[in-house]
Amino acid sequence: RDLGIIPKSTRGQKHGFRPEELLWYGAIDLKDCKPSNLANEVHLLLGRDAFDDTPDHVYDQLAPGLRLATFFLSHPACMQFWVTLAKGDRRVDHEMSRRYGKIRHRISRNVPMTDHNVNEVIEYMKELGTAKAIHFTFIQGLAFGGDAAFGTARTICDYQSEGSDSRQHRGLQCSNVRLHSDFYIIAKKLSTMKYPDPAQQLRFNFIFATLIVHELAHAIELSQWRNRAPSPYEPFLLHHNEAELGRMWESYMFGGQIAPVNDRVDGIYGVATWNWPRSFGEMDPERTICHALPMKYIEKLQQMETWEREYDLQDWRAFHIPRDGATSIYMNTVTTVSWTEQERAAKEALQERQLQDLEEPAQKKRETADGHAVAIKTTALEAEVVESQTSQEDKGTTAQQVQRVKREPCSALSRRQRRARKKMAQKASERNLPSQEKASEASQVNREEPIEGSRQKDEWVTSTATTATSDATNIDKVTSTDGDTDGDEIKQETRE
Q: Are residues 134 and 47 in contact, defined by beta-carbon separation less than 8 angstroms?
């Protein structure tokens, strides 16, 4: 992962959005696309005087996105996050405090969505806008932590302007939201176009509104840090272990993180979403699935009839994004790989998995006296003997009474010895009578032969027959572990 290598298990999957998919699923164009008709007043937090060094024609182009952001900040159906953040029970999280070496808090449950709680938070945010504690500035080449960023929020010294007394009275901390200059440039270009693309304008308004509210989640929390001693840090919400209020708001509002495809703030390639916080460990690419937003959803949010409807206050998932469009694995970018190339990669991945299934499983190894690793392998004869013995066992026999397979290293047996054992196994399978009966017949034949001599000779013959019987039984059971003994030599000794 650190080297940027994609695991083999993800080969053949779509890494990146294909342009034809974005078009087919309606993520770029929309027939009879309606422009934004939002006519609500802009929130006091987003007033014209809150944007520093922004001319009127640029602000007017940003106004549709600011009106959409106003609904995100004040509509009752969008207030679950803000009510929980403002009125949630913050308690010290000892585990996170030990991890970060600082006092950290957690809000472990959502606050009930009652009319009283919703109206109280809405009024508080209006007072925050009246105090003019938050300002916006466009910055060229904006970066955060060494990486490029769309926006950042930070605390600043108090502005010497009207309303400073009210800020000091409330104990508010002023903050500055810095936005990437690309938003300023795109708004200025759109203001000069005579026939702009309405679908692209809607995407730009949505991206800008989402970014504004994302950064306001940080700025509103920063404005109250003086009243929340001894921890000026953002709290953890619910069960998540990442304190990122901006992305948490996106997860509450849309069901996932929002970002433009290819990081184009003008939205020319569409907008995408994916799960946040990530439900896997350390950026596993197999589970990072990006979903393109359909234009029908973006158009719906910027129509007044959508916000004039009545919503259930308990249903804070009313605006979650439907995930039925184009998808991409791991990358929020457009890919130029063709369909045939994708199919070829999928076939290669299938062939690799088939070859892996045909490979022999890993063999166990043992360490010899000289320190070398030797593979442990079960011979075919031993496996057949154990199988035949197991089939003849009674049903009441326990597993401990079944004879275990004796394993020998491959290097301990020569080719000739293995060939001899294989022949012995074939002969043993062709026998109809048990080996012990044949051994007893051989002993009776030996007894019927005429023997001349004394009683001492009879005793010697009897002991010889008994020895032959035991040897034959041992050969049939293949219990000898002497790797240097040849099969032909064993038979010769038995006949003797």
A: no
Largest CA distance in the chain: 137
Half-sphere exposure in the Cβ direction for 338 (13 Å, CA) = 3
For the record, the structure tokens of 460 come out as 């010697």
Q: How far is CA 91 from the centre of its chain?
A: 30
Question: Regarding beta strands 147-148 and 151-155, do their DSSP bridges make them parallel or antiparallel, or are they unpaired?
Answer: unpaired
Task: Supply the DSSP string of 85-99, one letter for each residue.
Answer: HHH--EEE-HHHHHH
Q: What is the 3-state secondary structure (H, E, C) of 417-486?
A: HHHHHHHHHHHHHHCCCCHHHHHHHHHHHHHHCCCCCCHHHHHHHHHHHHHHHHHHHHHHHCCCCCCCCC
Query: Tens digit of pLDDT for each residue in 61-87?
Result: 999 999 999 999 999 999 999 999 988
Polymer length of the chain: 496
What is the number of other CB atoms lying within 10 angstroms of the CB of residue 16? 19
Q: Copy the structure tokens of residue 61.
A: 């182009």
Q: How far apart are the first and last CA of the chain?
A: 70
Q: Which residues, 6 or more positions from 337, have their beta carbon under 8 angstroms from its beta carbon?
A: 16, 18
282-329 pLDDT, tens digit each:
455 446 788 999 999 999 999 999 999 989 888 888 899 999 888 888
Long-range contacts of 252-260 (CB under 8 A, 24+ apart): 252/80, 252/81, 252/316, 253/72, 253/78, 253/81, 253/213, 253/319, 254/210, 254/319, 254/320, 254/321, 255/317, 255/320, 255/321, 256/291, 256/321, 258/207, 258/210, 259/332, 260/203, 260/207
Whole-angstrom CA distances from 260 to 269, 271, 295, 353 are 8, 4, 13, 35
Q: pTM above 0.70?
A: no
